[in-house]
Write a structure and sequence with these properties.
By secondary structure, the chain is mostly helical. Helices cover 81% and strands 0% of the residues. The protein is built from 7 helices and no strands. Helix 1 runs antiparallel to helix 3.
């Protein structure tokens, strides 16, 4: 399972870097008469430190959810990681989804004016991270399978976020806003990325479930 986890993480990183990032830039819109112009914009994103922070968050989230094992039962088993690790990862990824959805709705309603408050948006994202962290801690503290619960929440959240962001992107594109499509495209790429992230751990959880069933049959 460890080898499969490494393979899934590498494939996920390649998808985010080679498919979702260029795809988000492409749906922003623009005059891409030549592939070289699109490649230049993609390279510009790759040289931005903000992009690598976002990429690091989602990639680390994928890896942690794949290899994390937490036991919160009363069997006094020694957990491999504290429950706060699961809460932190889930809160960070859910905060990104929530912020992207709310940001897209505000841009669809008010236009590009909201784009000027970048510092406020960072504090807003941090507040959401803290809020979701408290919620997940209270929710997962008594859960028997916290990682499975986290993945379920992230998958549902990514679907809901896409249902919100895609119509907002259509609105801002038809209105010919200047910067708003950048934010809504980021929201679309984020929703797909976290949806794929949720599928990654789910694959190994299915393997683990089947292996546990084999072990129980053998013991019987």
């Amino acid at each position: 399972m460890c080898k499969w986890g490494i393979v899934i993480t590498i494939v996920y990183a390649l998808i985010v870097l080679g498919l979702l990032t260029p795809g988000a830039i492409l749906i922003v819109g623009g005059d891409y008469a030549k592939w070289g112009e699109l490649a230049g914009n993609v390279w510009g994103v790759y040289t931005s430190w903000l992009f690598w922070i976002f990429f690091g968050v989602v990639l680390c989230g994928e890896a942690i959810l794949l290899f994390l094992s937490v036991d919160t039962s009363r069997q006094r088993l020694k957990p491999r990681a504290h429950i706060l690790v699961s809460c932190t990862v889930a809160a960070a990824l859910t905060a990104i989804l929530t912020a992207a959805a709310i940001w897209s709705v505000v841009l669809a309603a008010n236009g590009d004016a909201f784009m000027d408050s970048g510092v406020a948006f960072i504090f807003f994202l941090g507040g959401l991270w803290l809020l979701w962290g408290v919620f997940f801690y209270l929710y997962l503290r008594k859960a028997s399978a916290p990682v499975t619960r986290v993945i379920s929440w992230l998958l549902r959240g990514s679907v809901l976020e896409l249902l919100i962001v895609v119509p907002c992107h259509i609105i801002v594109r038809r209105r010919n806003d200047c910067s708003a499509p950048v934010a809504t495209s980021f929201g679309i790429a984020t929703g797909i990325a976290i949806m794929l992230l949720s599928f990654g751990p789910s694959v190994l959880l299915l393997y683990k479930k089947r292996l546990d069933e084999y072990a129980q049959r053998g013991a019987a």
